[in-house]
From TrEMBL:
Molecular function, one GO term: NAD binding
Domain called D-isomer specific 2-hydroxyacid dehydrogenase catalytic: residue spans: 2-306
Name of the protein in its database record: Hydroxyacid dehydrogenase
Pfam families, per the entry: 2-Hacid_dh (PF00389), 2-Hacid_dh_C (PF02826)
Species this protein is from: Methylobacterium soli
UniProt domain D-isomer specific 2-hydroxyacid dehydrogenase NAD-binding: residue ranges: 99-274
Keyword Oxidoreductase: yes
InterPro entries in alphabetical order: D-iso_2-hydroxyacid_DH_PdxB, D-isomer_2_OHA_DH_cat_dom, D-isomer_DH_NAD-bd, NAD(P)-bd_dom_sf
Length: 328
């Protein structure tokens, strides 16, 4: 396991496997531990060549949803099934989006700090210039499960107009008005980035799109760091051309202490925790354990993301070493 998982999940696995948790997530550490692993439960970025160092591997389970942590083409070529856990942290991420939106819009932390430092009279007038969330326009880039959950809360809870853009613009459940990217950025009061990271979305939110945003608009990224060009966002924030942003993900993680984003005003930074809560960790942990147990038993996982690997699954299972498997 690249990181610890929920105790209930470990309890499910322990009768069937020797559990080893990596002491850190450096590439060399993960390569070394993969040498004897029968299964991998993944919460951190795997090195691209991890499978070259894992001759006994039967399967990989992503503790979560995003698949950019796993070298799926290499796993498929080797007949190694990969599973993830769709929907396991959708509510947690959606709640984080609105927590960030209220932080940026209603500025409660700033009001609290000013009241404590400078007093009631200094703090109270600041609320007069704050925009309400209700009735404003929310743009969602990426209308998958998370995007649709955010849209449902926005529309039913706050009466927001919801715009959305994705490759297909299907399955929008009547909640989302499909628009092109340019319209989404130019007409939204808040833009939420919730699309997967791939070749098409890397650097997608660039200076050109950010320049289309309204002066009082905010940007929230709960997807992956490389989707948003950090330099372009920092420049817009420093120049005051947008009202604020909230980033939970970054191109380099952990975020270096001298990163330019740390100097930006009106920017909420969190350490990739949008999908993390006590509830979601339990759900993801148990889900990952159950999928891994299926794989170790020679059965396909329920949420198989590379079905092409099934053709080789039986052959690989038959070759696997007998005895107590090691899940790492």
């Amino acid at each position: 396991m690249t990181n610890p998982i929920h105790p209930e999940a470990e309890a499910l696995l322990r009768p069937r496997a020797r559990l080893i948790t990596a002491p850190d997530t450096r590439a060399e550490t993960l390569r070394a531990l993969a040498a004897e692993a029968t299964g991998l439960i993944v919460r951190a970025q795997l090195p691209d060549d991890i499978l070259d160092h894992a001759p006994h591997l039967r399967g990989i389970v992503r503790h979560g949803v995003g698949l950019d942590f796993v070298p799926i083409p290499a796993a498929t070529a080797r007949g190694i099934p990969v599973a993830n856990l769709p929907g396991s942290n959708t509510q947690a991420v959606a709640e984080h989006v609105f927590a960030a939106l209220f932080h940026l819009r209603r500025k409660l932390a700033s009001l609290d700090a000013i009241l404590r430092d400078r007093g009631w009279i200094a703090a109270k007038p600041l609320a007069s210039d704050l925009d309400e969330v209700g009735g404003s326009t929310l743009g969602i880039l990426g209308t998958g499960e998370i995007g649709r959950r955010v849209a449902g809360i926005a529309k039913a809870g706050f009466g927001m107009r919801v715009l959305g853009h994705s490759r297909s613009n299907r399955n929008l459940d009547g909640l989302i008005e499909p628009v092109d990217r340019e319209t989404l950025f130019s007409e939204s009061d808040a833009v939420v980035v919730a699309c997967p990271l791939n070749d098409a979305t890397r650097g997608l939110v660039d200076a050109r799109l950010i320049r289309r945003m309204r002066g009082r608009a905010v940007l929230i990224n709960v997807a992956r760091g490389p989707i948003v060009e950090a330099a372009a966002l920092a420049e817009a924030l420093m120049a005051g051309r947008i009202a604020g942003a909230a980033l939970d993900v970054f191109e380099i993680q952990p975020l270096p202490g001298d990163h330019p984003l740390l100097a930006c005003p009106n920017l909420l930074l969190t350490p990739h925790v949008a999908g993390t809560s006590a509830t979601s960790l339990r759900v993801m942990g148990r889900g990952a354990a159950e999928e891994m147990l299926r794989i170790l038993a020679g059965a396909p996982p329920r949420n198989l993301v590379n079905p092409e690997a099934l053709a080789n699954l039986s052959r690989r299972t038959g070759r696997a070493e007998r005895g107590e498997p090691a899940v790492r």
